[in-house]
Design goal:
Layout (H helix, E strand, L loop, with lengths): L5 E6 L5 H10 L12 E3 L5 E6 L4 H6 L5 E5 H10 L2 H7 E6 L5 E8 L14 E4 L2 H10 L5 E4 L15 E6 L3 H5 L2 E10 L1 E6 L9 H21 L1 E8 L3 H7 L7 E5 L2 E11 L5 H9 L3 E7 L6
Parallel strand pairs: 1-3, 1-4, 7-8, 7-9
Antiparallel strand pairs: 2-3, 4-11, 5-11, 6-9, 6-10, 12-14, 12-15, 13-14
The structure holds phosphoribosyl ATP (PRT) and zinc ion.
The site of phosphoribosyl ATP has 22 residues, from α3, β9 and α6.
Length: 301
């Protein structure tokens, strides 16, 4: 059954789940979700989805139970240090950064604690769910501290007297603030990544590699579309040379005549970079009007 169907592991529930399902759906992967399903047959492509805890995804790929999966870089880094480094390097490849679930793994201490650098952590007890990454950071900075590994709610450890500092994921910083903690050093920046077995992209052509390449092309298209905008506006014909300097990342614009005038044109462009209000105001300053910015749903180049 496994042979020719691509198996993708994603988180069953939690912060990565929605974005993963959304990405798969944007890639045209149709699945029928039932509440407790751990395994799902894709209806329109030779793909199966496995729903698991995020921590299990790297090992499922190392063991070749799955061909690829989506996981946070924080988990991958911790697993890299946990497994023998070369073993993981030999069997897993980061194929694509996906841009969602951005966060950072940071050191935080109670607001009243002085912190002048990593050496301030000497002799302290630090609570974390990432003992390997923390241990790596401490040894890099030649700090000797006691690592207390706990599986959740790390941020309350200092209040409970269990730890003097923590090493935990931070996104907005609100959780730290609510627990009277301050972020003092960032160990690792993280986002969701598509990982796969080392041979998934190898030259050996088989139907699995083909389906993987198709999905990868679609993922690239989805990400490019998310970053891009379709911009339409009217502008004086004479301003054409400046337009491309105002809108960097634009493909060659489509120029159309406007009924009843020869000195004004309609311009349609795809901008592959974010379009900010300042950019639109600059267009307005060179005489552009009726400016519309539209999202792009799909993009194939
Ligand atoms: O059950 P399972 O093991 O699958 O899930 P989990 O409980 O281990 O992970 P989950 O769902 O909480 O997070 C999955 C992944 O989302 C993480 O491994 C990160 O890659 C990513 N991610 C992105 C985050 C956050 N942002 C995040 N803010 N993971 C956790 N947090 C927590 C953090 O631990 C802290 O408690 O949110 C709090 C801080 O958030 P802010 O916004 O207050 O700073
Ligand atoms: Zn987890």
């Amino acid at each position: 059954m496994k042979k020719n169907r691509l198996r993708i592991a994603i988180q069953k529930s939690g912060r990565l789940n929605n974005d993963c399902l959304d990405l798969l759906s944007r890639c045209g992967i149709k699945i029928h979700l039932s509440k407790n399903s751990l395994f799902c047959h894709c209806e329109n492509l030779p793909i199966d989805i496995l729903f698991v805890r995020d921590d299990d995804i790297p090992n499922l790929i190392i063991d070749e139970v799955c061909d690829c999966g989506i996981v946070g870089e924080n988990i991958l880094f911790e697993k890299t240090l946990t497994n023998k480094y070369s073993e993981l390097e030999d069997s897993i490849k980061v194929i694509k950064k996906l841009g969602f679930s951005q966060c950072r793994l940071s050191i935080a201490v109670p607001i009243a604690t002085d912190f002048t650098g990593p050496l301030s952590l000497n002799g302290l007890r630090i609570a974390t769910t990432y003992p390997q990454t923390l241990s790596y950071y401490l040894s890099q900075h030649k700090v000797v501290a006691k690592i207390t590994t706990i599986s959740g709610s790390v941020e309350i450890a200092p209040r409970l007297g269990m730890a003097d500092a923590i090493c935990d994921l931070v996104a907005t910083g609100r959780t730290l603030e609510e627990n009277n903690l301050k972020e003092v050093d960032c160990i690792l920046q993280s986002q969701a990544v598509l990982i796969g077995t080392n041979n998934i992209l190898s030259a050996v052509q088989n139907s699995k590699a083909e389906i993987f390449e198709l999905i990868l092309r679609r993922i690239n298209g989805v990400i490019k579309a998310q970053e891009s905008k379709y911009i339409m506006f009217h502008a004086p014909r004479s301003s054409l040379p400046i337009i491309s300097t105002i809108l960097p990342g634009c493909e060659t614009p489509t120029i159309m005549p406007l009924e009843g005038t020869t000195d004004k044109i309609a311009v349609h462009v795809v901008s592959t970079e974010g379009v900010f209000w300042g950019t639109l105001e600059k267009l307005q300053q060179i005489g552009a009007s009726s400016i519309l910015v539209l999202p792009i749903e799909k993009m194939l180049n």
